[in-house]
Amino acid sequence: MTQSKVCAFGDDPMVVRHTFAQFPSGVAVLAVDIGGEKHALVASSFMVGVSLEPCLVAVAVQKSSETWGAIKDADSLGVSIFGKDQGDLLRKLASKDRAARFEQVVIEVRDEGAVYIDDAALWLECSIHEVSEAGDHWLALLEVKQLGVGENEPLVWHGAKFRELVDAESVGVK
Ligand SMILES: Cc1cc2nc3c(=O)[nH]c(=O)nc-3n(C[C@H](O)[C@H](O)[C@H](O)COP(=O)(O)O)c2cc1C
């Protein structure tokens, strides 16, 4: 008998977290300035290409997120995808001390309130298209209004570590 590749995970969330951590992703920060107060929500659940016409991306946000409560009605959200050397910045923008998140962080604030971090891999200006319930998260569809690509390569989040992209065909080839 062949051994099964899958097994029941019961009610152990750590098994689920550990398994999902093997799925690599980029990490986004949704950022906005509302009346001079800046908010940042770091999310690895960010997903591009949900739809091309209209241009939609998605993010899953924990229902417990205080930042989401503050930004969910914003007209415009800045989305920056962290670059390969921005792990420390990511940690800062995701820190528990919400008031300190933007201390000494180089940003650009646009008139409509969208906030972008410097040296990101790419930037999107989005509006909130639709929000639906997804278990213990909100699933937010964002409509992309403007976009741009930076010169920094993206940081990769995998196995609870920050990693960098490597060209597979160049590995081991002399
Ligand atoms: C690498 C990384 C990825 C994260 N991904 C998500 C995510 O996809 N969705 C989410 O709601 N929170 C995510 N978080 C947690 C949030 O960034 C934030 O810490 C949390 O929402 C609590 O802060 P808040 O109450 O200000 O929202 C992530 C944190 C880190 C460090």
SSE topology string:
HEEEEHEHEEEEEE
As laid out across the biggest beta sheet, the strand order is 2-1-5-8-9-4-3
Uncertain regions: pLDDT < 50 for 5+ in a row? none
Total number of beta strands? 11
User: Which class of secondary structure composition applies to the elements?
Assistant: mainly beta
Helix content estimate: 10-25%
Question: What do we call the CATH topology?
Answer: Pnp Oxidase, Chain A
Query: How would you name the oligomeric state of the polypeptide chains in this document?
Result: single chain
Radius of gyration: 18 Å
CATH class: Mainly Beta
The coarse overall form would be: globular
List key phrases describing it.
174 residues, mainly beta, Pnp Oxidase, Chain A, seven-stranded antiparallel β-sheet, two-stranded antiparallel ribbon, 3 helices, 41% strand, binds flavin mononucleotide
Quick take:
This is Flavin reductase (DIM6/NTAB) family NADH-FMN oxidoreductase RutF. With 174 residues, the chain is mainly β.
